[in-house]
Amino acid sequence: MAFWLFKSEPDVWGWDQQTAKGDAGEEWHGVRNYQARNNMRAMKMGDRGFFYHSRSGLEIVGIVEVCAETHQDSTTDDARWDCVDIKAVRPFTTPVTLAQIKSDPRLQDMALVKSSRLSVQPVTDEEWAIVCALGHTNP
DNA sequence: GCCAACGTTGGC
DNA sequence: GCCAACGTTGGC
């Protein structure tokens, strides 16, 4: 199983809205960046991801799971853009802030630190375990 | 709200 | 195929 990180501006689509979708989940549509799309194409059913609030909040607030593999993005007819569906698994007991991540020497290679504009990012097994521990949350 | 960093577009 | 112009993202 692989791990990922999904970014969203909470003013547009936040953790509470994601949670409200329940196990049916929701399309992660709207991605118009090839690298982010390619990351979604690499995802498999059951892969897990962090849900991160960008622009305001600036913290990882929950864990999500891929519940549908990549398919056409329903918000466009352009066949270049497809996306997965994700559902909320559990919130973080303690959100892990960007400042915490930036100040942890073990997390300096995270895409969140190195390529801050990428909206769908891979996370390593090690990073997954460290961030979950920081948030006092089951992996 | 600003603006640096970055990705994309399109003229040549 | 280069690169200037432009648009968007996201931390501050």
From TrEMBL:
<dbReference type="InterPro" id="IPR047197">
    <property type="entry name" value="THYN1-like_EVE"/>
</dbReference>
<dbReference type="InterPro" id="IPR002740">
    <property type="entry name" value="EVE_domain"/>
</dbReference>
<dbReference type="InterPro" id="IPR015947">
    <property type="entry name" value="PUA-like_sf"/>
</dbReference>
<protein>
    <submittedName>
        <fullName>Predicted RNA-binding protein, contains PUA-like domain</fullName>
    </submittedName>
</protein>
<feature type="domain" description="EVE">
    <location>
        <begin position="2"/>
        <end position="133"/>
    </location>
</feature>
<dbReference type="Pfam" id="PF01878">
    <property type="entry name" value="EVE"/>
</dbReference>
<dbReference type="InterPro" id="IPR052181">
    <property type="entry name" value="5hmC_binding"/>
</dbReference>
